[in-house]
Amino acid sequence: MLRAMKTAVTGMNAQQILIDTIANNLANINTVGYKAQRATFRDLLYQTIKEPGRIVRLNYTAPIGIQLGCGTEVSAVERDFRKGRVLQTGNPLDVLIDGDGFFEVELPDGRIAYTRDGAFKLSADGLLVTSEGYPLLQRIYIPPEAESIIISKDGTVSVTYPDEVEPEVLGQIMLAKFVNPQGLKAIGENLYVETPASGKPIEGVPGEEGFGELRQFYLEMANVDIVKEMVNMIMAQRAFEIASRVITTSDRMFEITNRLVRA
């Protein structure tokens, strides 16, 4: 009975983490470039009371055994890096990665961070930056006298001027990808940083060598499936309730046992 209580508690703790993960997904339904999270579970240690296959009589072995589990726990909370829904904005500074890759931005402490959020802005100096003011690693400046901004599929950034026909090339936006993007560490603000699990970044030109192309005037929104999240939330709630009933039932069994002892 005590084992049942402890086992049920592990189930309730695991379902609570699942609910927290679902809540974060739903909260970021309109976050640009957000990638949905998914909690995975694993069972805990087992106490073997009867070993499967042990010899019970001469030349006879037990076909099955007796193993009592100790519950479950969350083994990982992983990211779903599949492409999110596409939103057409008409803003020339909005850029979508159509395929694999991350934008590279420089943080104030000198570290390089990676993002799928292509909602860029211009700083007071004309520097192409993220919504939080972090510049792209390629440091692209847009002249104030520029009439229009052109970002091609391969990341080439050009501008046109009122009195000139040919556009002027200012630079090129490069992308980075990882062997194991699941190993990236999220630090908030739609940013990730590399870890030993993700491996080193592989830099490349958009549209080449497996990198996605860039699409100007579009944004990649969150890839959260609302219906799926709602179904998972209901299942987690039911599992939590059932685990709590196990504790209640075990407590009643303790009460019955105590009455027998008193009798």
**Can you tell me the overall shape?**
elongated
Biggest sheet: strands side by side, in what order? 10-9-16-19
Q: Which bin fits the share of residues in helices?
A: 10-25%
Mean pLDDT: 92
What would your notes on this structure say?
The chain has 263 residues and is of the alpha+beta class. It folds into 2 domains: 2-80 and 241-262, no CATH class; 86-220, no CATH class. It has 2 helices and 21 strands. The two termini are 20 Å apart. The mean pLDDT is 92.
Keywords for this entry:
four-stranded antiparallel sheet, alpha+beta, about 260 residues, elongated, 2 domains, single chain
Lay out the secondary structure:
Blueprint: H1 2-27, E1 37-43, E2 46-50, E3 55-57, E4 60-61, E5 66-69, E6 72-79, E7 86-88, E8 95-98, E9 102-106, E10 112-115, E11 121-122, E12 128-129, E13 148-151, E14 156-160, E15 168-172, E16 175-177, E17 185-188, E18 191-193, E19 202-204, E20 213-216, E21 218-220, H2 226-262
Antiparallel strand pairs: 1-6, 2-5, 3-4, 7-21, 8-20, 9-10, 9-16, 11-12, 13-14, 14-15, 16-19, 17-18
Helix pairs in contact: 1-2
Write a concise synopsis of the structure shown.
This protein is an alpha+beta fold.
